[in-house]
Amino acid sequence: MALQLFLIARIGFRAISRVFIILGDYMVVTKTPSTQTVINWITRLSLARIQSSAQLVGSKVHGDCFSNGFIWILDTSIGLGAGKILTVLALDAHHHLQNESAPTLQEVHCIAVSVAPSWTGENIADFLQKIIATSGRPAAYLKDGGTDLAKATRILSERGLLSSDIDDLSHVIANLLKHEYGNHPMFATFLSACGKVSKKLKQTTLASLAPPKVSTKGRFMNLHRLVKWADKLLKHSPKGGAAKGSLLAKLRASLDQLPDCKIFISRFIRDSTALLESQKVLKTKGLSLSSRKECQQLIENIPASSPVRRGFETWAEKQLMVAKKLSLTKIGIPVSSDCIESLFGVSKQLGAGKIKDANRIALRIPALCGKLTKEDAKEVLNVTVKEQRAVENSLPSLTGQRRQVLPNPGCLDKIEFDEAKQNLELIIKPGMQVKNSINIEFPERCQKTTGPPKTISSQEKTPPKIAIMQ
User: Fold this and answer.
1) Which of these, 59, 54, 85, 87, lies nearest to 71 by C-alpha position?
2) b vs e for 376-391, b when ≥16 Cβ sit within 10 Å of the residue's Cβ?
3) How far is Cα 470 from Cα 468, in angstroms, rounded to an integer?
4) Pairing of strands 466-468, 425-428
5) At what angle do helices 13-23 and 35-52 cross, to 10 degrees?
6) What's domain 44-167+336-376+391-468's superfamily in CATH?
7) HSE-up of 383 (CA within 13 Å, CB side)?
8) Is the CA virtual torsion 243, 244, 246, 248 positive or negative?
């Protein structure tokens, strides 16, 4: 129940303990688990899932019979303290044959996670090579447009570990819109007007009409929300006069230069709406010959000469070549890495505390992936205190540094001593791996099934140990 409250209800460690106190009168709970006990259970679930990742069996990929049948989703988090988290998720290559929805955290498995001060193409490639040595080579890598990740996969191909690359659709669309509208003459005017409108509307009767907040980082991932807001707001100000002192008059006095941006707004909505509708189709169904045809109809409103349309069509052609290589043109190839973005977002908020310690956050990431079963709870109880402490005690801790140093002047050297410890790296130990066999192939005529990829039970094979490496 504690695992379900954390992973499904997504409430914090202290809240879980309080829930048990309330439910104790209605359930047979002889001893309420403390906050630290719940934290220990989540940590051990992460360790157990990393151990069991060597037992995952992927679907047979006809176009690449030497791969392990998984698509690896890669990404690095933003900097947290002095650490940056690199996570590798495994998604069954035949996800869209087994499921009728986009991949979620329940369908992916965290097979490795590591923290480093920074990540470059070289050390990402080295880390991925360690995983390949124990888990086999993936059918493809699904990643955003980061140059470091692209360089890493290129280095691996030069080392003879070639796998196809799939470019995440959300980032592709954001970049297309950025290249088309980032230098538009009305773009800066539009953003400035939105900011001024926001200031004029807040703390007034029209505060409900204030614009939504859009992060400046990855702005074009969410800019369509701001543009749609502007379009709706301007429709509340039709042509004609407004009575003095009326709400319409007050609204018009707050619009600043927003009415001058109507051409920019209409063009952006035309392009972004078509692309986002196509994105919704491809995330749900995957990129296949049929879903591509459906998207071609959705983007008909965009002029054929538009760089946005041409860029989207070029991306689709490139990814279809990957799908053809893996014999997935009829099934559909996954093209969205939203699940790993969601994973980072949840892990930074859920149980992270006020101090965002990269190592502690990374230690709980594997627990957030996969479908929770009663077998998982049994595996948690099989992880010993010694195994848990061997991992935790080797990590630098921002929380520990704060407790030791802040109230005790003159002991700053303890920070350097703590930082000298190795950062977290959870990966199956080389030499202890279970060879990754290939699952029964899925004929294209078979019906869709639901559920995660098949795994080998813990009774059949003993999970290998975890290696904690520099």
Assistant:
1) 59
2) bbebbeebeeebbeeb
3) 7
4) antiparallel
5) 110
6) Ribonuclease H-like superfamily/Ribonuclease H (3.30.420.10)
7) 27
8) positive
DSSP H or E segment with residue 455: none
Residue-wise pLDDT tens for the chain (470 aa)?
999 999 999 998 999 989 988 887 787 777 888 999 999 999 999 999 998 887 888 888 887 878 889 999 999 986 556 688 999 999 999 999 989 899 999 999 999 999 988 899 999 999 999 999 988 899 999 998 889 999 999 999 999 998 999 999 999 999 999 999 999 999 999 999 999 999 999 888 999 999 998 877 778 888 999 999 999 999 998 888 888 888 899 999 999 999 999 999 999 999 999 999 999 999 999 999 999 999 999 999 999 999 999 999 999 999 999 999 999 999 999 999 999 999 998 888 886 666 678 888 889 999 999 999 999 999 999 999 988 888 887 777 666 666 667 777 776 766 665 555 678 888 876 544 443 333 333 344 344 445 555 544 444 444 444 444 43
- Token pair, residue 322, equals 């990957």
Task: Report the alpha-carbon angle 421-52-35, nearest 5.
Answer: 60
CB atoms near residue 317 (< 10 Å): 10
Tokens of 419: 């930082």
Residue ranges per structural domain of the chain: 2-42, 44-167+336-376+391-468, 169-238+246-334
At position 74, the amino acid (one-letter code) is L
| CA 250 – CA 245 distance, rounded (Å) | 7
Please report, in angstroms and rounded to a whole number, the separation of the first and last CA atoms in the chain: 35
What is the C-alpha separation between 319 and 222, in angstroms, rounded? 24
Tokens 């460690």: give the residue. Answer: 13
CA-CA distances (angstroms) from residue 192 to 197, 237, 253? 9, 20, 16
Between the CA atoms of 328, 331, 332 and 334, what dihedral angle is there, to the nearest 10 degrees?
-90
Cα(298)–Cα(316) distance, integer angstroms: 14
Check if the beta carbon of residue 52 is closer than 8 Å to that of residue 448: no
d(CA 434, CA 417): 37
169 residue type, one letter = L
Residue type, 222: N
Give Cα 58 distance to the centre of its chain: 21
The amino acid that residue 381 corresponds to is: L
Specify the pTM.
0.84
3-state secondary structure of 92: strand
Helix 307-325 vs helix 289-298: crossing angle, to nearest 10? 170
Structure-block tokens of residue 11: 């409430």
3: left (phi over 0), alpha (psi -120 to 50) or beta: alpha
